[in-house]
Amino acid sequence: MRLEVDWTRCNGHGLCARLLPERIALDEWGFPLIADPSVDAALVRPARQAAAACPELALRLVPDPASRDDVSRPQQEARR
Questions:
Q1: Could you identify which of 12, 17, 28, 54 might form a hypothetical disulfide with 59, taking C-beta atoms 3.0 to 4.6 angstroms apart as the criterion?
Q2: CB-facing half-sphere around the CA of 22: CA atoms within 13 A
Q3: Tens-digit pLDDT profile for the chain (80 aa)?
């Protein structure tokens, strides 16, 4: 999974950085800085919470197209 910011929506509230400091820092105006957008399994839950809490719905957690595991894993787990 990876994080994406919709810059047309982001207003720099900074809530995402407080909820996911492992991946998100803030610039001097309060806008998110994401040096590494990849989200490993240990951070998926807090990343989802940060995305859901964004007041502008500007933060998204999306499957990483470079890793097919992100796309196929939920389907495999559903079959069990």
A1: 54
A2: 12
A3: 999 999 999 999 999 999 999 999 999 999 999 999 999 999 999 999 999 999 999 999 999 887 655 445 555 445 55
Structure tokens at 76: 């495999």
**Helix residue spans in 4-43 (DSSP H):** 15-19
- DSSP count for the chain of H helices, then E strands: 3, 4
Amino acid at 66: A
Interatomic CA distance for residues 21 and 70, integer angstroms:
22
DSSP assignment letter at 57: S
